[in-house]
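Archive maintenance. Older records in this collection stored only the sequence; we are now back-filling the structure field for every entry so that each record is complete. The fields below show one back-filled record exactly as it appears after the update. Entries are processed alphabetically, and Dickkopf-related protein 3-like isoform X1 is next in the queue.

ARCHIVE ENTRY
Title: Dickkopf-related protein 3-like isoform X1
Organism field: Solea senegalensis
Length field: 196
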Amino acid sequence: MSGNLWMLCLCLCFSWTEARIWAWMLNMPHSPPKDGAKIVRESAQVSKVATATCDHDRVCGRGFSCDRHFGLCVPLRGEGHYCRRDAQCVRGLSCMFGKCHRSIPNGQEGARCKVDRDCGASMCCARHHGEQVCKRRLIRGESCFVPDGGLAFSINQICPCDDGLLCRDSSSPPRREREFIYQPEQKSWTCQVPQP
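Back-filled structure field:
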């Protein structure tokens, strides 16, 4: 009996501890907003909206968005503040990597994308911290090694080599294509001009 009680206490402690650790690792607040939400101005109308329950943004009115996780209307957030989606940031900012940032014009490096054609010349659409953004293609001499898969590949990706370049092992002399042996564990791969 005491063993079961001890196990229950241990599980409860680890749940709280793990939540704190994950919150710290993700650099996000662990607890729901105190008093419903932060109040920007001292007025009865703002107070009423800041504690209103919601399930979409229209309910909250101008200057507020719906925090769908807690179901509360909260003030729009400024640059550098935590967010989960664009609608939580003030106009001109977008929610990227969990914080409100200045929006980057479409097609430029760092702008959101879905496919390569959404990006400018010599760029591709690849994941950066899990978010698909325009990145520049790799130039001659840059490392182009890509793991076969896994979490690191899923969260952060690189573009392929720029036009006219191929990703090749730079630690050994160039081999003819028929002699080429793929060695994924080798990380000395760079973008190179193909050998005839």
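Update note: The chain has a mean pLDDT of 76. The helical segments are 2-25, 44-50, 151-155.
Entry marked complete.
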